[in-house]
Amino acid sequence: MSEAIAEIPVHQNGSAAPSVPSTERKGLTKKEIAADHPTWCPGCGDFSVLALYFKLIEKRKIWHENITTVAGIGCSSRFPYFVQAHGVHYIHGRALPFATGISLSRPDLHVFVFGGDGDAFSIGGNHFNHTARKNIKMTYCVMDNWVYGLTKKQTSPTSPLGFKSKTDQWGAVDYPINPMKQAIAAGASFVARTTSTNPNHVLAMMEAAMDHDGFSFIECLSECVEFYEGAFDAANPRKGGVFNEVPNDHDVTDELNAYKLAGADFPGYFGIFYKNNKPTKNAKEAEIIKSYQSKVAGLKDWQILQKNFDKMK
Ligand SMILES: Cc1ncc(C[n+]2csc(CCOP(=O)(O)OP(=O)(O)O)c2C)c(N)n1
Ligand code: SF4
Ligand SMILES: [Mg+2]
User: How far is the CA of 312 from the centre of ligand 1 (A)?
Assistant: First the structure.
């Protein structure tokens, strides 16, 4: 744990020593947040996303006890292992329901979920749609590498047509989903796209997502150098590609235009496509709880339960 936490001397009777002013807690350093050495292949795009998460924690002064990192299963979903703080490496495709529970019960935290395209859009596809439509406050960063990396090269829902893999030896025949279109259509209230080869941009998207009060989704292209090398070269100026930002005059509240931007041919655009400020499920439930609590004040738990059961009769 951090040694940056201010130590306030305490008298033997338990009260704080009055003459010592409390000092401000320093932001955590990467050294204090980094856990085990990541087990990703050298050159994997996921390293960059992790490094920028550390930067975000450092910059925004998120303390150890407030860091909440949730993931499903996959190479990218190993993410929480590498963060020295609270985190969950949960069931394949089920990161979002788990994160929802945390988000609704701990409004003081901002939950970050990381995972892959398979985890998000195959096995977890239903959860993605429902978490988005419910507008649960959290940030979901999908490290999209267009392949199942952990299980060694199967076609994923974002693999392009013709991609040769262990499950499509003659080339993929199924039309890929477009994560940006899907997020917008499902009701996500913040939808952004970035690429792990542009660190400043990744950090900017993470910060904007974190500041959004609602379900914030980021598609982050993250190359699998082992099973889909060069997939995103066309989006990387260092490899002869282009990095086109969302046009300055794009109105992020314009859903239809956001959808059109999402339909651009690869490498498409990068930045915030869509954002609206509709109320979250968190806020709506908090309101219900507050008003109900005033009605059951003074009752014992079993009496409250009884009241609820009676209502259902
Ligand atoms: C219920 C269940 N089904 C299948 C698997 C096998 N499995 C593990 S990870 C994975 C796909 C991972 O792909 P993705 O989410 O894109 O992550 P990546 O490894 O590419 O980062 C699969 C099919 C599993 N662990 N659990
Ligand atoms: S298999 Fe691919 S996604 Fe997995 S760690 Fe290696 S490069 Fe990264
Ligand atoms: Mg993948």
Answer: 41
